[in-house]
Design goal:
single chain, about 675 residues, alpha/beta, Chitobiase, domain 2, TIM Barrel, 3 domains, 8-stranded parallel β-sheet, 4-stranded mixed β-sheet, 23 helices, 14 strands, about 10% strand
């Protein structure tokens, strides 16, 4: 019997094209065959089929009927999808993250498929493995091939290539818009912890009513039932719970007074109602509940009544550690893993991207060293809390290194490796040249990150610099005595003390980042085009949104110090420092705009969290504020004092001979006047 199959341009893929999942599997395999093989051969066929006699699980089988017919079969459509992707990966050598890292497969005349028993689903130790594509603001505004639908198709495909089977395809309305297409790829749907059962928000449906369960229980129940009816024929893991109109406690949207026991009673009643509603519609339904945010305190107080067959999902703190997250200024860091219970089914919700308006990573690669992530996820496994692992991906592209690592932790053969081993393996997979130098640059990235607290995981992501900078400018101009909502970092210090503390935190990290900028830009110039573009997009852009904003933050604090200094030319000095801060931040925008890959040039356009462009505008406001005070309301005194010849400056036949220079032009001219240095 033949044990080899030759893939050529003459190979066709057949399936039941009325089945959405099989049709998508065939579409992917046809695309990849077309991308890889270049020569014609004998007519043959790859058949993707559901085998009604096989177990209804995710396993698949690749077999040969004869030399002309390769069969990929499974008891489920998802299993067939995994089989098609396994051929793509193992035989055609298409990398799981090819789309996000622009790693095109090698083009060859033919591909021979043999050793069919080796093409199989990995042995996973995690049953439910998935992604929550959250804070997906960059993805939503990036039109790959003129359509965001194409972007989401690639997200689903990548998750399936990694062996994932569960997805929350976005947040709020985005998730509802994409659930159908995710299901057509074979993925199990589940729900945001702030959107139990995937139901619409009460205030969106009933905007004129108070979002009060106390007042309108029947309307809430109708929303839940409508959502169940809409999804009951799909493959769904049902998230139970009750929260407010967004990612917040329900009692914040209700004018009814609730004691702690009252809050627990409402949530327990809701969980029981939702559980019964789901089980009535889908008797074998899998349900979860997120012990997250405000539910943690109720759980720890022993006030929650959760059915035993509901998977309890616990979250990390957004910084890679399995402790409770900081909320506002409250950071109890309650240990999560100590709550493991072998009698229960438990899982985790783990972030490689996070958004807390404080110090998290939105634009950049996670700032926690990959070994620390691997070690923490291994502890989760040892605690028996990985029946369900959902990873918050953010916008995916900045975090391929970590998404790939998380995918590896799903497998039974996973072993924790050192940082050097993880980075070397990653670099050897995706770069063809200068691998040691490139791996060293990745390590430098993690070494440059600043710790803002006493714990090892308290490392600053890209949001730290801009959120802090904007608050400094607002506090300075408004002449307030304290930064708003910064007690989590600065405690009870007043503004001057806060600035001093922040300055001490960041000062030792500005120069290391500047050195890394020079090293990585120099290597990018030396590398072949493919490696250069990949390093630019996968590492350099993460470095840029740390290196330039941290320097801008330092310059802003220096500008404040200069403004109040008892020295000559102090206002001009402050003005130049603020202007330099804005121009430093502008280098991030230039890095995005000058991307060597046209595919990714517009990817960061909708940066509305870290918001580099807004921060530049805020610095523009500060620059003009300083100038009006120092240069006068007509903005012409500095020209006479610093730029005009002394003989002309003292003659006042005309008050001025041209319009006042704008702030940018004035900064350029003053820098020229002072030889590129600030005024002394």
């Amino acid at each position: 019997m033949e044990d080899k199959f030759l893939v050529s341009k003459s190979t066709v893929v057949t399936t039941d094209y009325t089945n959405d999942v099989l049709r998508n599997a065939a579409k992917i395999l046809i695309r990849d065959i077309d991308a890889v093989v270049s020569a014609d051969g004998d007519q043959n066929e790859i058949q993707l089929v559901i085998d009604d006699q096989a177990p209804a699980d995710e396993q698949f089988k690749v077999s040969l009927n004869d030399a002309s017919h390769l069969i990929v079969s499974s008891g489920t459509a998802r299993g067939v999808m995994y089989g098609a992707l396994a051929i793509s990966r193992d035989a055609l050598k298409v990398d799981d993250f090819w789309f996000w890292l622009d790693k095109e497969p090698e083009r060859v005349p033919y591909v021979t498929i043999s050793n069919l028993d080796d093409i199989k689903l990995p042995d996973f130790r995690v049953k439910y493995r998935g992604w929550f594509v959250n804070d997906e603001l960059l993805l939503n505004e990036w039109d790959y091939r003129e359509s965001t639908d194409n972007v989401w198709q690639m997200i689903y495909e990548t998750l399936l290539r990694c062996g994932g089977n569960v997805i929350i395809p976005g947040t709020g309305q985005t998730s509802q818009n994409h659930q159908g297409t995710a299901a057509k790829m074979g993925l199990i749907l589940t729900h945001h912890h702030a959107e139990p059962l995937g139901a619409e928000m009460f205030s969106r449906v009933y905007p004129d009513l108070d979002a009060s369960y106390f007042k309108h229980p029947d309307l809430f129940k109708k929303l839940w039932q409508d959502s169940i009816d809409e999804q009951k024929d799909s493959d769904v893991i049902w998230a139970l719970g009750f929260r407010g109109q967004g990612d917040r406690p329900f009692w914040l949207d209700d004018d009814h007074e609730y004691t702690l026991a009252d809050r627990a009673k409402v949530i327990n009643d809701v969980i029981k109602i939702q559980y019964d509603m789901v089980k009535k519609a889908v008797p074998d339904a899998v349900c979860t509940i997120n012990i997250y945010g405000e539910l943690t305190a109720l759980y720890n107080a022993g006030l929650l009544d959760i059915p035993n067959d509901v998977i309890q999902i616990w979250a990390d703190n957004g910084y890679g550690r399995m402790v409770s997250r900081r909320q506002g200024n409250d950071d109890p860091r309650s240990d999560v893993l100590s709550g493991s219970d072998p009698k229960l089914s438990q899982g985790i919700y783990y972030h490689v991207a996070f958004h807390d308006l404080q110090a998290s990573n939105f634009l950049s690669m996670l700032q926690i060293a990959p070994h620390e992530v691997a070690d923490e996820l291994e502890k989760v496994h040892e605690a028996g809390m990985d029946d369900f692992v959902l990873c918050n991906t953010g916008n995916i592209k900045p975090n391929v290194l970590f998404l790939r690592l998380v995918e590896q932790t799903w497998r039974s053969d996973f072993k924790v490796k050192s940082n050097a081993e993880i980075l070397s393996e990653y670099v050897e997979t995706y770069y063809q040249t200068n691998q040691e130098k490139i791996a060293a640059l990745y390590q430098d990235y993690f070494d440059c990150i600043l710790n803002y607290g006493k714990f090892a995981d308290q490392k600053a992501g890209d949001e730290f610099y801009t959120y802090t900078l904007r608050k400094i400018v607002a506090t300075w101009i408004a002449q307030r005595d304290k930064l708003p909502e910064m007690e989590w970092l600065t405690g009870n210090k007043k503004f001057i003390g806060e600035l001093s503390m922040i300055d001490q935190l960041i000062s030792d990290h500005v120069e290391p980042f500047e050195k890394l900028v020079h090293k990585i830009k120099a290597l990018i110039e030396e590398l072949p085009d493919d490696d250069s573009s990949r390093l630019y997009n996968d590492l350099w852009l993460s470095v840029a949104v740390h290196a330039y904003p941290i320097k801008a933050l330092k310059l802003t604090i220096d500008s404040f110090d200069a403004f109040f200094a008892d020295t000559e030319d102090f206002y001009a000095n402050s003005f130049l420092l603020a202007s330099e801060a804005a121009q430093t931040l502008n280098k991030v925008l230039l890095a995005w705009q000058n991307n060597p890959s046209k595919k990714w040039v517009r990817f960061y356009d909708n940066d509305c969290y870290t918001n580099i462009s807004l921060t530049i505008n805020v610095l523009g406001t500060l620059t003009n504020y300083v100038r009006i005070i120092g240069d006068g309301p007509d903005e012409d005194q500095w020209e006479r004092e610093y730029l005009m010849d002394k003989s002309d400056a003292k003659i006042m036949l005309l008050s001025n001979t041209h319009k006042a220079y704008d702030d940018r032009e004035m900064a350029i001219r003053l820098q020229g006047r002072f030889g590129g240095n600030q005024a002394k």
